[in-house]
Design brief:
Layout (H helix, E strand, L loop, with lengths): L1 E6 L9 H9 L2 E9 L9 H20 L5 E5 L1 H12 L3 E5 L4 H16 L3 E5 L21 H8 L41 H6 L4 H15 L3 H4 L12 H5 L5 H15 L2 H26 L21 H9 L5 H13 L4 H14 L4 H11 L5 H12 L14 H8 L4 H6 L8 H4 L7 H6 L15 H15 L4
Parallel strand pairs: 1-2, 1-4, 2-3, 4-5
Helix pairs in contact: 5-11, 10-11, 11-16, 13-14, 14-16, 15-16
Bound molecules: flavin-adenine dinucleotide (FAD).
Length: about 475
Amino acid sequence: DTAILWFRQDLRLADNPALRAACRDADRLIPVYILETDTDPWAPGAASRWWLHHSLSALDAALRERGSRLHLLQGEAGACLQQLVAASGTTAVYWNRRLEPAAIARDRDIKAELKQRGIACHSFNAALLVEPWDHLNQQGRPYRVFTPFWRSLQPRLDSLAPQRTPSQLPGLPRRRGHSLQLDALGLLPEHDWDAGLHDEWQPGETGAHNRLRTLLERRLQRYPEARDRPDADGTSRLSPHLHFGELGPRQVLARIQQHAGARRSPGLVGAGEQYLRQLAWREFAHHLLYHFPETAERPLDSRFKAFPWRNDPDSLRAWQRGSTGIPLVDAGMRELWHTGWMHNRVRMVVASFLTKNLGIHWLEGARWFWDTLVDADLANNTLGWQWTAGCGADAAPFFRIFNPVTQAQKFDPDGSYLRRWLPELAALPDKWLARPWEAPAAVLAEAGVEPGATYPRPLVDLKASRERALAGWDAIRTHN
Ligand code: FAD
């Protein structure tokens, strides 16, 4: 029999349950990726499209090594699959589930249409440790608080193992219609702003495993102390690989458990647990979006529907460009623009600054991140923004407004992160680096900093804007 394996956000061969099942059942297999021309407001942004291009190229190379190749199509997914089925005489389609609201609705329709034509559809879990309907609280409801979610997940971890994929894949059928060339998908940018991305990333399964190895060999031991420090290269940077499914969470879990177990070092076991706890935030985010699908656009805490957000395009643009005059915010936004990634602590700081000090709606920030992050992920991004804005599940209370000056002093104490991204301030002494507007004129002159010329003056006064934010919160906190 001929089958189709529909790749989506699972761009890997290892631990791929749909691929494994298709290999077991079919004599001929067409691995296909369909670039959807859809009207979804959360269609992949520019940085994600760059990543996708390179990841598809890597996937095709890996398939060729195993005697197959990637078939590429573009269009409406249901119609593309119908055509491919008709051209190849396929009897079954396999895929791994996606749980974003638009993907769920689309998959349901496709499944119904294919079934009507007598085509079997088989779907699997490759993206999560446990799926949302399979991990509820004692009342059978979704968790809305992280700690109990994590506590009840922990005892389940030992039973989750990655699955093996056969080394040789079924061959392609002779008849299968026309496949597009990768370049024809037009995923790469027209203007070459992507040099920074090339320097930083290796999209694809091999790149993902290289990062995982670096985590285990060099970063895990000090992860608990270093993970909060943007100046230390202390986190795994696995997020884009996990988003595109070049690596699955069960694989990460297994390697962490093996590594910590083999070393028998309590420190490493503790660090492994801390790391898995972060990975569980990813699970939590995906479960929340599944149970509360409206939260991609609307606050989970409905009081925030009445929040007096400000419409301020100039400030939004300054934030996007990293020219707010607040060094930690600007450093983060420039890191994002150049590398497609930003450290988690700095993400919280820039998000707090946008939503609270500038009073701009969190969705404006979420959309910018969506276009510029290589790890843009609807579940994680929604959770991150709503958490910081104070309107999400288990969110930071609204009155917790990050102070970008003290955050920089605490988490980048010698200023190396700020100096890397803001060379125009590099000569300032540590004392003034995070708050150049308070530096004496002579110090600024000595460091070659001219406020308003070489580096912007602050867009807002941190204290006054904080008070305005708190007044906005006071106005809505008693709403129902
Ligand atoms: P590590 O510290 O090595 O963590 C390991 C993995 O755990 C990550 O790869 C990620 O998959 C997961 N993880 C860690 N922290 C979180 C978290 N807070 N929430 C959910 N998952 C987490 N992450 C994204 O993957 N995509 C996004 O679009 C995204 N948008 C965010 C927006 C805001 C405003 C904030 C505050 C956070 C956002 N995050 C997002 C979460 C977090 O910042 C990144 O996952 C993390 O910085 C990725 O770096 P890493 O892989 O080195 O993390």
